[in-house]
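Q: Could you fold this chain for me?
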Amino acid sequence: MRLSGPKVSDRTWSTLRRYGLESNYQTDCRTCLSNIRRLIHETPDPELVYALSELAYVEGKKSERAGEVSDALNHYGIALTNSYDYLFSDAYVNTRNPYDPQFRSVCNLYNESLEDTLRLLCRENRFQPGQTYTIRTPEREFIVRTEMRGAWKPSEFERYEFVSDYDIQTLRNRHTTYGLGVPLIAVRRAGSESDHREGYYPEGLSYAVTAMMRCPTPREDRKPGETPVCVLEFFDPLQANQIQLANHWVPLETDLTTPLAFFLDSPEYRERDRPTLGLVRPNMVEENRGIFMLEPYDPNRIPVLMVHGLWSSPITWMDMFNDLRSFPEIRERYQFWFYLYPSGQPFWLSATQLRTDLAEMRQTFDPMGDDRPLDDMVLVGHSMGGLLSRFQTIESEDKFWKIISDRPPEELQGPEDQKAKLVSAMFFHPNQSVSRVITIGTPHRGSDFANSITKWLGETFIKLPNMAMSVGRTMVGANPGLFRNSHLLTEATAIDSLAPESPIFEVMLAADRSPQTRYHNIIGVLKDPPLIVGSKHKGDGVVEYASATMNDVESELVVDADHVSLHMTGQAIFEVRRILLKHLQEFDAKNRVALQTESGPGSNADPAHLATPIRQASDISAATATR
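A: Sure. Below is the predicted structure, expressed as structure tokens.
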């Protein structure tokens, strides 16, 4: 490719000379293309097919630059159909050589001509999945039928962007696969407000899509007068990265990263993603609090909920999410969710809200409790987010209540709804849906970062949510003398709650844990700590190793990284992948036993098949990544 447009390759010039067509092309390119088509019918030589595809593409570019859209579509159609024949026609099965560089060049010609065709169709507003279009050019007429091959509906997308138009700046790694097709960014259209599931999908969300074109049979195989029909398909690369074409399994050209970066750079996301606002003005973030999904909910994949820490937001997880999703064995079996909460409020209050939000999510997507993967959820928490995650798996008994009062909760006076909120925050049980927790850089015993200076700054600048704190203030005012630690209910900020002397930590560490939950830990320990923390500091610069380590974990990894970047390191991401793969093994083994029991004695069901709900694509022509 050059600024002046594509040029004919030396190999194609050689083919033209070999068949005596060099001067023919230079004087009359249209006649030359017709002559090549005639020769291909007489002599099925793949070199001729390649030459025809390349020449047609070059002429298509010239026509497009000249503003002749119909002529450009005609030439791109010739390039597209002939490159398709080169790759899949039975006529070339004995001469096609996948080791020849020309083979990949044909793949590129197919992809480029398809993308340029789609661009012209977009320009003329002829690009809507689920529709059938008739395209007329000076030399031909053909029908394009468009079909969705994913969990989406054709009407779900507002518009499409081309991946090739964008560069990545917000993420460290770009994950692609190479094959056939055109990677697209599909910008989601907001659904009906009456659908409660809609609140879990952020506005402006975009998905990765790959467009593929199945080309018609060769002219000699069509009936007289039959109009060729092309099938334009839109595939979800998270469901399938191979498709079957002409009895061949063909890899799709995919890009999972660019659509994610496109969403992170959208005005809608930037408006929602405000870490500093979540710290100093948590009441302004409260309305956006909740669990968010960047992919369609899938009842067959295990949820991984990622919980950010203090002065942070879900964007802190995007490098880990992007890298984990690049592994086929991970993206096939897991769906990733993110929790956004006002990080300036005490973490025990955020943990209470997370407990409520998880229950509401289950009621929204699986009210009958039929989706087994939801019962094996994995929580991954960074920093304070690890405390929120751990809180979901412990038994309160009356230990948390005794922090604030030595009198029974039955003596509480005040509005019934506010009494219920306070009691639910102090008395709770482990969430039976959480079966594994991964904490990263988490201050399980508090952090010296929460000292007298930072606590004073927190009390000065952090404005706690009115709704959250009003319960505590109302209860304290209605029950004089009942509470011995009213500060915890009315004025404590997130920084206060993280102080090592906070009574929450002692009770939390001593609380009974869910026997079904497994714990893992990743800790940052700097080999060369900065001067500001001192050379004797053993930790990540914010959390000491002594506070981060735990003795009830199945695994604990120490990484040379600071607190802010710990969960973004390759070591931490690869460790999370290892843990998720281990989780899959245990999930499959447990469900194999359960399904064998359900099938009953003498059942003919295949337990190994039942135990692994591998994702199947929505069309028989699509394959999963492990095929």
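A (continued): The longest strand covers residues 141-149.
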